[in-house]
Please model this.
Amino acid sequence: MTLRQHLSALFTDLYEVTMAQAYWAQRMSGTAVFETFFRKLPRGRSYVMAAGLADVLDFLEGLRFDEADLHYLRGLGLFSDEFVQWLAGVRFTGDVWAVPEGTVVFPNEPIVQVIAPIVEAQLVETLVLNQIHCQSVLASKAARVVDAARGRVVVDFGARRAHGIDAALTVARTSYLAGATGTSNVLAAREYGIPAFGTMAHSFIQAFGTEIDAFEAFARLYPGTTLLVDTYDTLRGVDRVIELAKRLGQRFDVRAIRLDSGDLGALSKAARARLDTAGLHRVGIFASSGLDEYRVAALLDDGAPIDGFGVGTRLCVAEDAPALDMAYKLVEYAGVGRTKFSSDKVIYPGRKQVFRRIEDGTFAGDTIGEPGEGLADEQLLVPVMKDGRRITGYDAGLEAARAHARQQVDALPPQLHSLEDARWSYPIAVSAGVATELETLRHQQRLVAEEKR
Amino acid sequence: MTLRQHLSALFTDLYEVTMAQAYWAQRMSGTAVFETFFRKLPRGRSYVMAAGLADVLDFLEGLRFDEADLHYLRGLGLFSDEFVQWLAGVRFTGDVWAVPEGTVVFPNEPIVQVIAPIVEAQLVETLVLNQIHCQSVLASKAARVVDAARGRVVVDFGARRAHGIDAALTVARTSYLAGATGTSNVLAAREYGIPAFGTMAHSFIQAFGTEIDAFEAFARLYPGTTLLVDTYDTLRGVDRVIELAKRLGQRFDVRAIRLDSGDLGALSKAARARLDTAGLHRVGIFASSGLDEYRVAALLDDGAPIDGFGVGTRLCVAEDAPALDMAYKLVEYAGVGRTKFSSDKVIYPGRKQVFRRIEDGTFAGDTIGEPGEGLADEQLLVPVMKDGRRITGYDAGLEAARAHARQQVDALPPQLHSLEDARWSYPIAVSAGVATELETLRHQQRLVAEEKR
Model:
């Protein structure tokens, strides 16, 4: 997506810019390490699927304040002319380490590490968080829906109720990343090179004199299409499809009917029976209307003969968990580990790596350690940007990320596939090295605090 | 915003385009009336504040398929060359009636009415719903937060956790519309001409050797600033501010301290006491961290001496109600009322108006009627676009919408200000004219269905 590449550098919180001027005024040009992570899994999530990195890297590569941006900043009365002049030359020149998109992550594990002069690293906080948060929230929800659909088709129908244009494009991307078959959103399909799907709306049926005329017009125009049967009376709608099959004979080529209201379980069974009795075994059943992973799983558990699911609202806003407590925190500055101690929000200091043990192809536990600690073969964070440029060969594109995401979900311990709140927690440890560093800083801080008394 | 004006016309669901070709192929060029409304208030909402109209009108005025869009559509193998050629000339030439932004609306009340040749009205469904839904969801949440803050400052801090870039800009806009004082988002502040606010981050404190050095550097640079006191130990942080006041003497000019963790009620009281004892009565207290209308109201009920609130995550994703069941439904085509009967999702046929009774300055009840039925003086839907062009003088801008929004909230019945699920429902009726039209269509439909047996 070029949206992020051409996004104004003013897409940031005001305090990032005021802090930047203060660092600049203090001649603080040391290297900072910021880590993006979340602290707690929300109810209804046993893991998070990381996403958003490609867009973050686009933004970092394109970061610059243009003349209009600088003009606006001058007008705020907060910034000196020299600083604004200096801002004009600011580019992102740092390094980034990150877990590849589609990787499954857990609380306190760094997802993205930004290593750069402190001003640059501070200025990009808002965008990094905005994209990693939103895309990870949406990918995590989609991964659950896809998992619940047990190999059946899942199509993103979220464009109309996603939170704005960017989110509508994103939910198409992250759903595909997480294993969905495609999206209804044409722009997203073009931008990301993913399949576009569509059926028909009630308005189409309503605009025609009769349901069967609407079906016939659509089916003649679109071989292999899907017909929406619930505008007036669902099972009578199914009968109209059967009538159409008789009318068109050999020319009848309809892939599926779509149910969009009512008791989808009972209706799908009744519809399947009528279609089968009419010999229309090859006409599938596609369902939509208020679906999420819980509804999909319940329908399939109940034996509903549904071949595909259109999932909209509850997917596109991640309705049960629309936010994570994701943060972007300074862990090192000028070579020294940094932390904060305010209640209940600990930051582990220093640059870190996540080591994952894998046993028999299944994730067995993670340790958050120091980069050198070699605690397991699998190290989640990899270098993706060096001196402000993407590392060649890192970004293999959405299809590769999708394959990686599937491998990740396949390697989850069985308990994490459960849709219920797992009593079992995936084992996550902090290495002795990291724990010691935190204690050392705590001790120093206590000494400083006592001196000040 | 120009984002919507330059948005590709491909920001639509695929079925809008396949239906458009079917209408075109059938020579169906009659005028359609589509209405946007929601069916049910979600838990935790007693009203919805309508928003998003300005962006919808921008999009409608700019609607066109460019060469890249047409090229992509040709490649899908669904559309004839003639149709794609014809699409190149499609513009939005219809009329729009709508409730002004900031208007309080209730279930089944049309928010936006699109009256246009059916192809045009169908193609814009996705964008109309995406914007009206997202902006109304976010404005409704913000209205509650502002109401709960009882006149205190509310600042949108949502940029980092809103669902993408568009939502981050939108939440700044809709929060301001609903009465917030400003936003932390610099780009949104510039785009919408609203005040930008900022404090400082923990990283700033952490990067300095000591907390007081960080405070001093920031306070010297930014007279009237806000200092974040909870990085290491909140009340010691307050003591550092007091120490700074002594150090700087007359030059000490700090507007507020900010609390961002822990028990905000207890900490604000203890901080207030320390500041007052030190004679710093004019230093206010600004609070953030996990706030929403419930927390804000509870803090104020408890007498917390907090002067302003930074509200982020729970506002920017409307965490407790991130979606409405908002629909865009055909109610009339070629002069004939249209409906559907599928279970539990009734559509009232025909073009409608919302009549609102006002008694002693308070909303007393609404009736959804036919446009001609003069059921009350106050008619919510007004013409905003004619033949594809904004009606001059309609759009008075964000400040006027904000004043309108405030009047609307002030005129709510007292029960609707309650944050708890109201047992009392605002009275909404359907006029005899609309009810009769629905019954007539139901009867006709039964006749058609019986004929077909």
User: Anything to note?
Assistant: Residues 14-138+322-452 of chain B form a domain with the nicotinate phosphoribosyltransferase fold (CATH 3.20.140.10). Chain B touches chain A through 111 residues (CB under 8 Å). The longest helix of chain B spans residues 125-148. The first strand of chain B starts at residue 31 and ends at 38.
